[in-house]
Amino acid sequence: xxxxxxxxxxxxxxxxxxxxxxxxxxxxxxxxxxxxxxxxxxxxxxxxxxxxxxxxxxxxxxxxxxxxxxxxxxxxxxxxxxxxxxxxxxxxxxxxxxxxxxxxxxxxxxxxxxxxxxxxxxxxxxxxxxxxxxxxxxxxxxxxxxxxxxxxxxxxxxxxxxxxxxxxxxxxxxxxxxxxxxxxxxxxxxxxxxxxxxxxxxxxxxxxxxxxxxxxxxxxxxxxxxxxxxxxxxxxxxxxxxxxxxxxxxxxxxxxxxx
Length: 259
Fold this sequence. Notes:
- By secondary structure, the chain is of the alpha+beta class.
- Helix content is 20%, strand content 33%.
- The protein contains two helices and 19 strands.
- The chain has helices at 2-12, 219-258, and strands at residues 18-20, 25-28, 33-35, 38-40, 45-52, 63-66, 79-81, 91-93, 102-110, 117-118, 123-128, 134-137, 142-144, 149-154, 164-168, 171-172, 179-182, 191-197, 208-213.
- The strands form five sheets. Strands 2, 5, 6, 9, 10 and 11 form a six-stranded mixed β-sheet that branches.
- Strand 9 (102-110) and strand 10 (117-118) form a beta hairpin.
- It is rod-shaped, with a radius of gyration of 35 Å.
C-alpha cells in the first residue's frame, strides 16, 4: 500500500503543482518553434526536465533538456530552455525535424520529493515536411505609388516564430520575418515576390506579382486628358459635318431658286 501511495505521489506530485502548456503546435520541418509554458511550484525547485513521449519524465527516460548538466545531451543543441526554476518553463526547438513530432512534457523536481511534479497533458508537436509557403497581401495586387502594402509568408501550419528568406525575382531581400512591409511604394517595388524557410528552401512559395501604378494624378490624369481630347475632337468633327451639310443644302436651294 505504501509503495502504491509513493508511486501516486511521484506521478502526480504535491497538491497545488501545475504546468500550463500551449495548444497543439504544427510547424514545417526546418523551422523554429517556441513552446510557451508556465508552472506553479509549491517548494524550491532544483531541477527541471523536458522529455518526449514519456508520462512522467523520470529516471533513465531520455530528455531533450535537463538542467542537471551531467545529464544534458550536448550533441543536440537544437533544444533551448528559455525558462527558469521559478515559474517559466518555455522551450524552444530550432531546425525542427521529423523526430520532433511527439508529445513533450515538463517535469520539475524540488528539494523534497513531495514537490516533484510532471505535467502529464503535455504539448503535441506535428511536423510537416516540405510544405510550400504561400504569400498573402494586405492590398490588391495593383497598388499606387506612395501607398503601403504588407506581404505575409504563411503556411498550412501555425507558427510561434518563423524565419524566412524573401526574394524579389531571384534577388534575396534583407527581411527575415514572416511579414514584408513595403512603404512608401515606388515603381521599383514592382516585381515577382517569393518566400521560403531559411532552413528549407524547398518550401519556397509560388511567385506573387506586385504591380505598382503611378500615383493619383499621374496615370489618372493622363486618362482624363485622353478622354477630353477625344470628346473635343468628336465635337469638332460633328460641327464640321453639320456645317458641311448646311452649306450643301444652302447651295442646292440657291440653284433651284435661280432656275
